[in-house]
């Protein structure tokens, strides 16, 4: 056990999108912040979403107009802040009259277009399907509207990068095992989940942004009852070879009143999801069931000429959403809005807990949470994140940045540079620093995942395993063979061992 004299203004529990968003916001307002995450950044819900920045068209059916309005406004803000990892996407909604009448869809799309100001995205319109359409012949018309795409795990990591650049301490593989109030402060014990080492620190405030573990943090670390209940809802997705060649995404209606997305994914694939299933157990162990796979396959096959089966699934993932328990009768009706619960002891040692939320409104949630905590820190500065770019997002268009990189690195394939633009943005220059030839990129572990990039991710983005690199920092797990993934894993372990030995020496 190690006791330090380190004192922080704020300790944030949880390295998902809300935790990292809160950390960077607070660090930018002048607070001394530490974030601890018991696994990898974005290792649970925040890397297993539908990867959409959207208002939530179907939430209008549940009369969540306030949530949709806020999400639509945030959608525009985020698309401007992060043009490398977010971009506009057009959605096709095939019309099936027995499920929802056309007038209802038109009314919903009118609200969707006008509830919040649109500067980036085009409005909705009706569409007719021709013989060349990927839709089955029975479906001959539909609607088209705009939303946005996001690389969810990159969003989390880049917020952490930004927070660290503003002085925050980011500790992954570190769990808060105990927190208790003492002399108007929090005494906190942090456990390194790899070594078992315990470090004791102090903080003036705590924000519990543990996502699916928000209630568990009360049970285990605080030893007290959570003021709110949550319901864990599993949403599963799978990846298959491209179902269609359009740039558009599809939003499919089903007889159970739910919807399923079919999204263009990593150029060569389609991402299909999501489900809504009540879940119990460890969120890190959530997996798609055979029933969920069959459910998604069936909906796709009702709509598309190209049929798929479970045998076509190349990859699947399941995220567990910690939704506020509003006593809704079905999972899809549970609110996706968030609640912030603040409590303190005679105006000291505040604890703020985050319940619920969705990725689109993470910035607004973070701003609201930090504003509440800053009441205890009179010297904190004003909110600032609305107009600040996400790291690497300080450029105008992907195409122009790609053209500039291609002129500077003529020896690198355009396809590789395109992936860098959509992963690192202008930080591609940092990754490629000192590279004057293809040989300078080092070993290719497969599909253009070079040693130069792997080292960058280990040294700059807290990557500690092959999975961190293949599924969260990138999506290269789709393209590397099992042998190549094993080679990468050994390389990463060797890198970390070399780093450890250098620190000891």
From TrEMBL:
<protein>
    <recommendedName>
        <fullName>Glycerol-3-phosphate dehydrogenase</fullName>
        <ecNumber>1.1.5.3</ecNumber>
    </recommendedName>
</protein>
<dbReference type="InterPro" id="IPR000447">
    <property type="entry name" value="G3P_DH_FAD-dep"/>
</dbReference>
<feature type="domain" description="FAD dependent oxidoreductase">
    <location>
        <begin position="9"/>
        <end position="362"/>
    </location>
</feature>
<dbReference type="Pfam" id="PF16901">
    <property type="entry name" value="DAO_C"/>
</dbReference>
<dbReference type="GO" id="GO:0046168">
    <property type="term" value="P:glycerol-3-phosphate catabolic process"/>
</dbReference>
<dbReference type="InterPro" id="IPR006076">
    <property type="entry name" value="FAD-dep_OxRdtase"/>
</dbReference>
<keyword id="KW-0285">Flavoprotein</keyword>
<keyword id="KW-0560">Oxidoreductase</keyword>
<dbReference type="Pfam" id="PF01266">
    <property type="entry name" value="DAO"/>
</dbReference>
<comment type="similarity">
    <text>Belongs to the FAD-dependent glycerol-3-phosphate dehydrogenase family.</text>
</comment>
<feature type="domain" description="Alpha-glycerophosphate oxidase C-terminal">
    <location>
        <begin position="385"/>
        <end position="500"/>
    </location>
</feature>
<dbReference type="InterPro" id="IPR038299">
    <property type="entry name" value="DAO_C_sf"/>
</dbReference>
<dbReference type="InterPro" id="IPR031656">
    <property type="entry name" value="DAO_C"/>
</dbReference>
<dbReference type="GO" id="GO:0004368">
    <property type="term" value="F:glycerol-3-phosphate dehydrogenase (quinone) activity"/>
</dbReference>
<dbReference type="InterPro" id="IPR036188">
    <property type="entry name" value="FAD/NAD-bd_sf"/>
</dbReference>
<keyword id="KW-0274">FAD</keyword>
<dbReference type="GO" id="GO:0009331">
    <property type="term" value="C:glycerol-3-phosphate dehydrogenase (FAD) complex"/>
</dbReference>
